[in-house]
Amino acid sequence: MDETSQQKTSAHVSTARTRPKKRDRSASEERLLNAAEDIFSKHGFKGATTRMIADKAKLNESLIGRYFDGKMGLLFALIEKHIEDVPLDILPYPPQETVREELHKLIDSMYYKHCQKDSEFFKIVISQCLTDAKFLKRIREIIPKKIHPDVKMRLENLATQGKIRTDVDLELFIQTLDTYFHGVMLFEKILMGYPEDKLNQGMRFVVDTYATAIEIKK
């Protein structure tokens, strides 16, 4: 075997050795994240320990420090994972013909279903925000704070079509909606535990009222 062949063989062996390690790490990280979410939900962030998480994942506890820099790093990795799971690149429904229909579709969109589905985890995040100022500051930097930007664009298009009163401040309108929706998720869903049908009923009543206030009646 010549020198060139030996170099190619060595490179191939090196790559073959690296790939399984990357796959193993990815699988281990996923197991630790799943275990952490389960443990955090059952015991709270303060009550959970890295030993409990490692035991749940059936992995060495030292991997938590190596991959996530500890328990807090695990929590932030989970938060980022939840954010990535939310489809923020495009709204999951086509533009609607009226403000009322657009807002109804927004309620039904995957973003709000996602928030409802993961309410137990969000309790942990909110609790930590209320007791840890540094955690709250970092959360404000990474969590999306506004309704999907396409909603504003669609409402502006409806206004251009003459379907929204010209004196309506759409920026303020969307900001008000955003505050209301987040309040619903925090208070009614997470704190009060209202069922999904009651949440949807209440949100539809509110957006119908908003729509009536800003739409041009024909």
Automatic annotation (TrEMBL):
PANTHER family, alphabetized: HTH-TYPE TRANSCRIPTIONAL REPRESSOR SCO4008 (PTHR30328:SF54), TRANSCRIPTIONAL REPRESSOR (PTHR30328)
Spans through the membrane: none
Highest rank taxon of the organism: Bacteria
Region (Disordered): 1-28
Listed Polar residues bias regions: 1-17
Keywords per UniProt: DNA-binding
Stored InterPro entries: Homeodomain-like_sf, HTH-type_TetR-like_transc_reg, HTH_TetR
Name under which the protein is recorded: TetR/AcrR family transcriptional regulator
Pfam families: TetR_N
DNA-binding region extent: 49-68
Residue stretches making up the HTH tetR-type domain: 26-86
